[in-house]
Amino acid sequence: MSVYQVKDGVKNLIKPGEKLITTHCCYCGMQCGMHIRVNEKSGKVVGVEPRYDWPVTNGKMCPKGVTAYQTIDHKERIKTPLIKKNGQFVEATWKEALDLIEENYKRLQREHGKDALSVFGGVSMTNEKCYLVGKYARAVLGTRYIDYNGRFCMSSAAGGFMKTFGIDRGSTLPWPELEHTDCFFMAGTNTAECHPTSIQWLWKAKDKGAKLIVADPREVPTARVADVHLDLKPGTDSALANGMMHLLIKEGYVDEAYVAERCNNYEELKDSVRKYTPKYTSEITGVAEEKIIKAAHIFGQSPKSVVMFARGVEQQTKGVDNVALYSSMALLRGQVGKFASGVATFTGQGNGQGGREHGQKADALPGYRKINDPEAVKYISGVWGINPSEMPKEGVSAYEMFDEIQRGKIRAMHVICSNPAVSAPNTEYIWDGFKKLDFMVVSDFFLSETAEFADVVLPATSWAEDEGTTTNLEGRVIRIRKVVEPIGESKPDWEIFKMIAERMGKGHLFPYNNAREIFEEFRIASKGGKADYYGITWERIEKEDGVFWPCPSEDHPGTPTMFKEKFGTPDGKANLAVVKWQEPGEIPTPEYPHILTTGRVVFHYLSGSQTRRVDFLMEQCPLPYVEMHPELASQYNLLNGDKVKLTTKRSHMELEVRLTKAIRKDTIFVPYHWGKELAVNQLTNPALDPTSRMPEFKVCSVKIEKI
Ligand SMILES: Nc1nc2c(c(=O)[nH]1)N[C@H]1C(S)=C(S)[C@@H](COP(=O)(O)OP(=O)(O)OC[C@H]3O[C@@H](n4cnc5c(=O)[nH]c(N)nc54)[C@H](O)[C@@H]3O)O[C@H]1N2
Ligand SMILES: Nc1nc2c(c(=O)[nH]1)N[C@H]1C(S)=C(S)[C@@H](COP(=O)(O)OP(=O)(O)OC[C@H]3O[C@@H](n4cnc5c(=O)[nH]c(N)nc54)[C@H](O)[C@@H]3O)O[C@H]1N2
Ligand code: SF4
Ligand SMILES: [Mo]
């Protein structure tokens, strides 16, 4: 971390013989501002300095961010293409790798049709690359089968926002305004560990007297300092939100004028929440009645409040409902579209916002257009230079692609920037799917658990070896800068798409020489869509500390606050959610009597493919474990450090017990950042939300046995 003073700005951070390159952290949606220190002589990265003048993160970074630079020049980086021969990877030239890809793709297309190929994308890439993943799948391979890891991440938030507000922008307000918020209602977000640098806004607000309500089955760090901790049973958020709204209405906390003018369904909502008395809500959620009542009074009396949530409420089979219901709490209070108040989901991955707007999703085209909308198909076909009749139809969601592998429909998969062998639910099914494929390609810069299954591994560049843009969790489009030259023979993902396009006879569709040219095309592709980037230029981003979409023209200021006058729905009104609580996909049974939930720790990122390669982070957290309340542990005679076998309907695994009182007595928690026999996703339930197709990572039923 920095030992330098801020007062002289950037100059003071530069050491003789070094230069600083200003960019953003590669990991979470906070996209913390940072400078990478590069030795001018060797061109090598030697360290990092937080960026104090970045308005969203103000010089704060977390343990992952300050060590991220160590992955750039890491000894395990893949430096050449790899081809599997007799079960072993051997180094190959680009020509050999591309020959093999061309031969197999063309053969499979000939024998089984274009839908035999598939693409599994990811959103740790820049907007420019994410945009091209969709174009590569649809215009080059001609397949309907494309989806991406955001299906496991942001799809329920997206679905809930679309339903409620008509536009899915993760935050309705810019983060620095949070300093002036009077009340934070935070559900299913472990903010201190997962978006650590946003905590500063909470502290600043708390110093001014802001109140904090936390809804989480675990006493996460924010819950420890909360005014009320609603320690709900996993899978009961919709009951809690309905119970809160019951009280807001009963106690007269509704902003009646706002609701009458700007919202639909108020009468239906009143009917629907009538039975969610504190008593009934408490019976379902397991939260004490007094706590629910206290939370409703605090929330109802706060002039400026935000409702914030994350995967805890979204990664459920009722994830879309949960998002719509929690958002409706803010609408009842008239909070959306105003200063220092509103609704926000903590977007997960670095480009989790941008990456979900540009057409990596089975049903989406760039600019948040729909692939089943003929006008959208016509427009995007025009931008791409293809005939609208060539545009493939809607495909299926990420997990459901593995069903298509089992059915023999999908024969080949190109996984780009994701590690589903660790991160998808019910991993044994995923592993089996990979083995069944006739041909598999992975683009990554490390040999991930997924890459191990591939026939060909293509060395992509890391986040520091190419430039472009990302969109942070506020909806602010920002610049990622190139820090060093690509290592070995690695190439940016867009160049890889271009080379494959040329081999498939579609080189004319990928005429780009650099990321900037892609951005210019993408501006036009997004123009007129819900996520309109047309008015955003790289120069503006630089000058204005990022630009918020929608931004339809170069003289438009961008949109830091959403929905000031109207919502994105056809009638301009928000839709209050009228939904009853329903049970999660699995409820405890005598055979599987407890609830398993999964999530994160501060030291690791997602599948761990990057952070498990950083010594400092591994020293802090080398292995997964299971968090358990001492009372539950005593039922099984378990002490801290004992080994247990966990079994669900899918599979079983062994883990070390970590006793803590900071979790419900009926629930256990396992972090998911490890692979193979250490992957908790061997156990998780692949039941999907009916609209978002998001798997229920957060709730399943489990058996505990002492070993
Ligand atoms: N350190 C770290 N930070 C990260 C990441 C990482 O891997 N590591 N990943 C990034 C990404 S992609 C994402 S998506 C975000 C995720 O950020 P978060 O969603 O904050 O993280 P999780 O740990 O998945 O889950 C959050 C909380 O949900 C709670 N929870 C479980 N079940 C329920 C339930 O039924 N209801 C409610 N209300 N809460 C429940 C868990 O106890 C947990 O504390 O983090 C981003 N930041
Ligand atoms: N049990 C459980 N499972 C979960 C979750 C949970 O809470 N519980 N959360 C889910 C969520 S929210 C998410 S986001 C997913 C994420 O899961 P994954 O998609 O598996 O996420 P990563 O580990 O980031 O995998 C990205 C891979 O791409 C590589 N990579 C990074 N940048 C680039 C690039 O620019 N180009 C290329 N080609 N490769 C790159 C990295 O080295 C890494 O191997 O996991 C989901 N799985
Ligand atoms: S909070 Fe997120 S973006 Fe910031 S340093 Fe940590 S991982 Fe990187
Ligand atoms: Mo995520």
TrEMBL record:
<dbReference type="InterPro" id="IPR006963">
    <property type="entry name" value="Mopterin_OxRdtase_4Fe-4S_dom"/>
</dbReference>
<dbReference type="InterPro" id="IPR006657">
    <property type="entry name" value="MoPterin_dinucl-bd_dom"/>
</dbReference>
<dbReference type="GO" id="GO:0022904">
    <property type="term" value="P:respiratory electron transport chain"/>
</dbReference>
<dbReference type="InterPro" id="IPR027467">
    <property type="entry name" value="MopterinOxRdtase_cofactor_BS"/>
</dbReference>
<dbReference type="GO" id="GO:0043546">
    <property type="term" value="F:molybdopterin cofactor binding"/>
</dbReference>
<dbReference type="InterPro" id="IPR006656">
    <property type="entry name" value="Mopterin_OxRdtase"/>
</dbReference>
<keyword id="KW-0004">4Fe-4S</keyword>
<feature type="domain" description="4Fe-4S Mo/W bis-MGD-type">
    <location>
        <begin position="18"/>
        <end position="76"/>
    </location>
</feature>
<dbReference type="InterPro" id="IPR009010">
    <property type="entry name" value="Asp_de-COase-like_dom_sf"/>
</dbReference>
<dbReference type="InterPro" id="IPR006655">
    <property type="entry name" value="Mopterin_OxRdtase_prok_CS"/>
</dbReference>
<keyword id="KW-0479">Metal-binding</keyword>
<dbReference type="GO" id="GO:0046872">
    <property type="term" value="F:metal ion binding"/>
</dbReference>
<keyword id="KW-0411">Iron-sulfur</keyword>
<dbReference type="GO" id="GO:0003954">
    <property type="term" value="F:NADH dehydrogenase activity"/>
</dbReference>
<dbReference type="Pfam" id="PF01568">
    <property type="entry name" value="Molydop_binding"/>
</dbReference>
<dbReference type="GO" id="GO:0016020">
    <property type="term" value="C:membrane"/>
</dbReference>
<keyword id="KW-0408">Iron</keyword>
<protein>
    <submittedName>
        <fullName>Formate dehydrogenase subunit alpha</fullName>
    </submittedName>
</protein>
<dbReference type="GO" id="GO:0008863">
    <property type="term" value="F:formate dehydrogenase (NAD+) activity"/>
</dbReference>
<dbReference type="InterPro" id="IPR050123">
    <property type="entry name" value="Prok_molybdopt-oxidoreductase"/>
</dbReference>
<dbReference type="Pfam" id="PF04879">
    <property type="entry name" value="Molybdop_Fe4S4"/>
</dbReference>
<dbReference type="GO" id="GO:0051539">
    <property type="term" value="F:4 iron, 4 sulfur cluster binding"/>
</dbReference>
<dbReference type="Pfam" id="PF00384">
    <property type="entry name" value="Molybdopterin"/>
</dbReference>
<dbReference type="GO" id="GO:0015942">
    <property type="term" value="P:formate metabolic process"/>
</dbReference>
<dbReference type="InterPro" id="IPR006478">
    <property type="entry name" value="Formate_DH_asu"/>
</dbReference>
